[in-house]
Amino acid sequence: ARDGYHGQGNYWEYAAYVGLFPLFLAGAALHHWWRERRRPLEPTDPLRLVPFFTLLALAGLYLALGRRSWLYMALYRHVPPFSAFQAPARLLLLWALGLPILAGIGLQQVTSPAVRERFSRPTWEPWLVILGLGVAMGGLGARFIPHLPSRFGNGTLRLGLGLALVGGLILLRHRARHPRPARRWERMVLALTVVDLFSVAWNYQPTADPALYRRTPATVEAVTKEGADGRLFLVRPRQVYDRYISLSAFDDPPPNALQGLLESLHPNLNAAYGLPGVDNYEPLLVGHYSHLREALTTRPLTETLPLLRRLGVGTLLVPDATGERVQVRRIRAYPRLSLVPTARVVTSEEALLAQVLAGAWDPRREVLLAAPPPPPAPTGVPPVGGEGNAQGGPGSLTMLRDEPDLVTIQAVLTAPAYLVLMDTFYPGWQATVDGRPVPILRANYAFRALALEAGEHQVVFRYTPASFRWGLRISGLALLVLLLLVLPLPRRRAGPVTR
């Protein structure tokens, strides 16, 4: 990957390289299936799998083109589940799954005695060696062409040598007619494939000295010196990102650049040091949170400061004009957990977002709900739009457990109220109050709330998505079917025949 890629940036996560020899073996599987397609195949013949895995691999490759694939765009617009695939290049997983299986079938075919006898004489293999050497010489000659990027010559040279080696190995296969030479040939194929894959992937992703991450950044020490109060927020994160992250080169970044990036605590680096943050660096974000994040990262700090306080931000990381140094600033944060006496429903998404961004409500006295609580409402809970307790905070809250997929809260209320948790509202989270399931309300545009009666309660938020449960059941059923197919069934002994 060093100077070997020609395109728009170094998007290494979109690569699916399986090696030259596996590619030829996959072609061999297709060739043998085509020759035998008219002959009835045995149920256990692996050639029966060739059409399925060929279609799987080609479909994954074509769908990975995204907007350049009319089929993907049609599925994206008209089939609901496909609209969730925001990164179609990851469908290369189907290509990376199907092609190695085809290569395995091809290897089984070319090493079988019947095929070895049928193709005992070389035919096209010498021409492949000659072609590979010619391509390699062209790659060497490209180095002497002025103004031609070296990546073209290096890539062509690599391709030519690979083709020549593949052709040479296939020629050796014709000589390996006995078991011992055949095993040697298989080891050579394995060695060539391993070297091929490692030579491509060895420098494919930038690396850094592990010692760099053992040292605690000065920013972390400054944040924790007086005790981190609330969440972190990096002002102008794009400025810091553009300074330290490059999508135009594969070279390892210099240590001082990585040290500067660590000092900035750019999302999601804060999580590595156990510091909660508001921002998040992810290609796939929750819609409501994404709208808030866009406003926070694009508007001036003077406009977003009230909202940051409402989101529980207690520490601002402010980069200088160059993005090289980060200043730590403390602000007064609202609590992550609160009891709010009244609620107001704003059914319009645009109006709700506008009110949250404008800060036109007091989060200590009123919670903004995207929809009213579903009936039946708990007895004694203040009605939506009611007056409630003008003093606010009718009770106390204690965080008992705070884990990535579990939050447990002890609540003691002197009056009915809404418990507001300023964590992202996301499908899959479920809540119970004293062991009874209760609906989670979307509050303040992108967060969570529950309606509670007066008294003492134990509130549990648990992340248990239905998709995970269904996936577990389907996987268990598939494993059971596989075991039934693989394990031999006990045979009943034949007893004496009586007449």
Layout of strands and helices, then pairs:
Blueprint: H1 20-36, H2 50-63, H3 70-78, H4 92-110, H5 113-118, H6 125-142, H7 150-175, H8 179-201, H9 211-214, H10 218-225, E1 231-234, H11 237-244, H12 255-264, H13 287-298, H14 301-310, E2 313-319, E3 326-330, E4 337-340, E5 342-345, H15 349-358, E6 366-369, E7 395-403, E8 406-413, E9 417-421, E10 429-433, E11 436-438, E12 441-443, E13 447-452, E14 455-463, H16 466-486
Parallel strand pairs: 1-2, 5-6
Antiparallel strand pairs: 2-3, 4-9, 7-8, 8-14, 9-13, 10-11, 10-14, 12-13
Helix pairs in contact: 1-4, 2-4, 6-7, 7-8
- How much helix is in the residues? 40-55%
Query: Which radius of gyration do the C-alpha atoms yield?
Result: 31 Å
Order of helices and strands: HHHHHHHHHHEHHHHEEEEHEEEEEEEEEH
Distance between the termini: 79 Å
Quickly give the structural class. Answer: alpha+beta
Task: Tell me what portion of residues adopts beta-strand conformation.
Answer: 15-25%
Characterize the largest beta sheet: strand count, sense, and whether it forms a barrel.
5 strands, antiparallel
Number of helices: 16
Oligomer: single chain
